[in-house]
Structure formats: C-alpha cells, structure tokens
Design goal:
With 294 residues, this protein is of the alpha+beta class. The chain has 9 helices and 10 strands.
C-alpha cells in the first residue's frame, strides 16, 4: 500500500484541506475514504437523515445508503469518488476533520486491530505475518480478503472489515498476505471477558448458580442475528428500536452470563451503522440493564 504523500503534489489542488488531499490519494488507491471528527468518530447524520428519517438501507451507494449528498451514515459514507469527496456537501466536514478513515471491507481488506503490546505479542506468535501499521497503542495487521467485522474477539483484538472503518495512519511496512483461516477462526471464538464494546457497561451473571438455558450455541446466535436484523431494518424511531432490541436481548440472554463482548459489539455495530453514536449505544444498554435490574 503506497502512502498518499508518495504521490507528486497536484498543482491544481493547492488549497484543499490536508485531510481531503489524503482522502483523494486513498481513493486513487481504491480505498473508500471518509472524514473523522475529534475522538476518531464519524460525522453525525444531517438533519434529513437523523434517526434514519431518510429510510436508509445499507446497500452501500457511493455517498451513503440513502444517497444523501452529505458525509452521512458513518462507514457507509466512505467512497472512492473524487466528485463526492470534493463536493460542497462534504466541505464543512473536511474543514472540521481531525483525521481520515477508510472502509477496509470496501477495498477487500481486513484489519486486525491490536490495541496493546500484549495483543501485538500474541499476534506475532499466532498469526501469519502481513503488512503492519503502527498505531498509538499497538498495531494494525492488514490482510487481503473480506469478512464480517467483530469487536473483542480476544483481549485487545478487534477485526475491522465489512461495515467498519479504520483510521488511516500511514502505509505501514511488510508485504500484505491473504486473509488466513486463523483470523476467520477468531470470529467464531467467544472471548472470556464479558463486557460491552467500549468496556463501559459490563454484563454480569446474577449472584448464585446461574444456569444456562441455551441448549445449543445456535439458539444464542439466532437471537443475536435477529436483533441485528431488527436494528438494521428500522426505518424510523431508531433510538427506540435500539433500546427495545437491547432490552429483548438482555431479557433472553443476559441472566446466565452467555453474552460476550463479541455479541454486544455486533449489536453496537448494527446500531452505529444506523447513525447511533457509541455514547447512545452505551446509554441504551445501561438503561436496558437497569430496567431488568441487572
């Protein structure tokens, strides 16, 4: 992967914001790009799209799932179209941008996000070498291939591919290799740590001997998949839908301690794809737990 600054400066673009110039270089490389605001978060939906009032559907049009001209819908706004990136509707976002992100799944890539030194050490012992990018606290390992994104597949390890975004931190080093079965297998494993995607709202089994009534793993998997679908298909009242869905999941699966960070991360990802912020997800999850007395 070539770094955007390796390209000669285009004299026709001298006044473009620096993050927009980076995004245009990424687009030339086939990486769908998008602006990030402070806190590494995507820009919120415009007024017409807030709370999914636009009736969005995640069918991945170039400028967002509802074809909104603004930088809406988080990861789904990422694009390689320079006309969209430089459009007036995106100008304010680029002026306020603190960083640039890309949608790895849109470029047929998977990023294993290693969040600390222990996670990096584990990866070096267990995963095939590939292109790596140094991050603030760890590394990104980039593989060629696409899979479903999962948070918290093990301590300090997230998988970012489809329906996710990754901050651009440079070209990295090494040679990119194909997505190995070892990474795909991580998504099938349930981590031992049980907490939310952000770590702020843990889920604990009630005191005493909590008996799991899930006779097969498929029962829990079907429940999570149905919850993801319910959130994704919400055409309006997204806040209420997210809360009711979280409440239903916790009511059915929260008492025995079976919910993992992976499961909760999937629900948060579905909600954020509909325009919910991480803070709103955490609040909804906490309120659902309080409602049930957890």
């Amino acid at each position: 992967m070539t770094h955007p600054t390796d390209f000669p400066r285009d004299p026709a673009r001298p006044a473009l914001p620096v993050h927009l110039r980076t995004a245009l270089r990424l687009a030339e490389l086939g990486l769908p790009a998008m602006p990030l605001r402070e806190g590494k978060q995507p820009f919120g939906n415009c007024r017409a799209c807030t709370r999914s009032a636009c009736g969005d559907r995640p069918h991945m049009k170039a400028a967002g799932p509802c074809e909104c001209p603004a930088a809406c819908h988080g990861w789904a706004s990422a694009t390689t179209d320079p006309c969209i990136l430089t459009s007036p509707a995106w100008a304010k976002a680029w002026r306020q941008a603190a960083a640039v992100a890309y949608h790895p799944g849109g470029a047929a890539l998977t990023v294993v996000d290693l969040d600390d030194a222990d996670a990096v050490a584990w990866a070096r012992q267990n995963l095939p070498a590939t292109k790596t990018v140094t991050t603030t606290r760890g590394e990104h390992w980039i593989y060629l291939g696409t899979m479903t994104s999962h948070n918290g597949v093990r301590p300090g390890v997230d998988i970012k591919s489809s329906m996710a975004y990754v901050r651009w931190l440079g070209p990295g080093t090494g040679t990119m290799t194909r997505l190995p079965d070892a990474v795909r297998a991580l998504a099938a494993k349930e981590p031992t740590t049980v907490r939310s995607a952000s770590g702020a709202v843990p889920v604990s089994a009630p005191p005493g001997d909590a008996v799991c009534r899930h006779r097969t793993p498929s029962y829990l998997e079907r429940g999570i998949a149905m919850a993801e679908q319910r959130i994704t298909e919400a055409a309006n009242a997204v806040h209420a839908t997210v809360y009711r869905t979280f409440l239903a999941v916790l009511s059915a699966h929260g008492w025995c301690g079976c919910l993992t960070e992976n499961h909760i991360g999937r629900l948060f990802t579905a909600a954020q794809a509909k325009g919910e912020s991480l803070r709103h997800c955490e609040i909804a999850w906490t309120n659902a737990r309080m409602k049930l007395g957890m």
